[in-house]
Amino acid sequence: MIIKRIPAGIYAANCFLLMDDPTKNAAIIDPGGDGDDIIKEIEKLGAKPQYILLTHGHFDHVGAVDELRGKYNIPVYINKNDEELINSGVEVFGKIGSPNNPLSDNMVISLGELKIRCIETPGHTPGGMCFLIQDALFTGDTLFAGSIGRTDFVGGDFNSIIKSIKSKLLVLKDDVKVYPGHGLTTTIGVERVSNPFL
Ligand SMILES: [Zn+2]
What we know:
Elements: E1 2-8, E2 13-19, E3 25-29, H1 35-45, E4 48-53, H2 59-62, H3 65-72, E5 76-79, H4 80-87, E6 101-103, E7 108-111, E8 114-120, E9 129-133, E10 136-140, E11 143-144, E12 147-148, H5 158-169, E13 177-180, E14 186-187, H6 188-194
Parallel strand pairs: 3-4, 4-5, 5-6, 10-13
Antiparallel strand pairs: 1-2, 2-3, 7-8, 8-9, 9-10, 11-12, 13-14
Zinc ion (ZN) binds next to loops.
């Protein structure tokens, strides 16, 4: 498994390329902008993009979705709750085309020999999702190193994000590595003992 972080877009949201090494099949997680930079990394790795996974629908995480969807002719996965907010034009949500595939809690998606488990974590947005692959957890704007996502945007809810993190993420093993939507990586163990919001 190869994970490549590409800070993209005006807020430098983390786009991640997740690649299954033997097959080179890859998922593009949260392409927030700078499609050219993402394409360059894909080509450098020799990756074969299979689909785009979105942790949520905010514009800084979806800015390059349609560019990459068009270039590679691949499906896009997003939780329905966030797709609805996108379609109703709510500010801070981005614009993406359709059709899109719905993500739901506990859904498992294959990537070559890897299995991606989808975990629904509402709070930052109503359709927030995290993705767990072996000991790697992609948390979008739900959990950061030393912080959590804002809940003051439309659809955000503080009690929900705390409940999501405590009941769905902190139950994972200490050594699970966390790849957040902004900033640096951390681990579940470190956040459990030192994150001031938890
Ligand atoms: Zn966000």
